[in-house]
Amino acid sequence: MSLVLVTRDDAVATVTLNRPEAMNALSRALRAELAAAMRDLAADESVRAIVLTGAGTRAFTAGLDLKELGADTENLGAANAESADENPVKAIELCPQPVIGAINGVAITGGFEVALACDILLASTNARFADTHARVGVMPGWGLSQKLSRIIGIGRAKELSLTGNFLGAEEARDWGLVNRVVAPEELLPAAQALARDIASADPVMVRRYKALIDEGYALPFGEGMALEQARSTAANRMVSADEVEARRLAVMARGRERAG
């Protein structure tokens, strides 16, 4: 049985973590399959957006496989791995395309970190988030301690990480962690619809814009603004008036179509 399933619908790929009997825990084998899948999708220019979800309704992913960790302490190295084959966050980061996390159930500890590696998060009403690093006794190594506070604020991040308590889907939306919450049966259609919307834009522009946002977000504000100025100046020199007019008309037509 494949531990990672990949399906395609035109320019949108859906990647499913497929260990529902183990709450989609990130075993060594699953991490390797995820890296291989993400490498293939990253290299496929016909794929313009990716949806990442978990099989079943109980879990997006419960994080690293604690049974595997308990059997051999050398497995703890996965928490600090830098290769995409061992570190699923690095695997997701291989993708220049936007990755939408469809959080169908619990996202716990390493699973929370995998969720935070996605560009956009949608959640079902079954979704819950928890950081249990402090209770398990393993320091985060896939970015949670730094990313979470930047998204929801340092006080809220400390509350979650130092208690290990769960955060429900609606509160996650209210705190700015997820963009919206839908019924379980609506989650994958909603995520795929959003992916199709992104895929309808110019793919080169989408990839470059995503990179600009991510690289700027990692910088102090002034340096981020300077990065935007440099990238914008270089890119906009290459845009012709005819291209701008054609895209302006396309934007107007899309607006009329969406307005009904």
From TrEMBL:
Entry superkingdom: Bacteria
Signal peptide annotation: none
Parts forming coiled coils: none
Entry keyword set: Lyase
InterPro entries per record: ClpP/crotonase-like_dom_sf (IPR029045), Enoyl-CoA_hydra/iso (IPR001753)
Any one Gene Ontology molecular-function term assigned to this protein's record: lyase activity
Family: Belongs to the enoyl-CoA hydratase/isomerase family.
Protein name listed in UniProt: Short chain enoyl-CoA hydratase
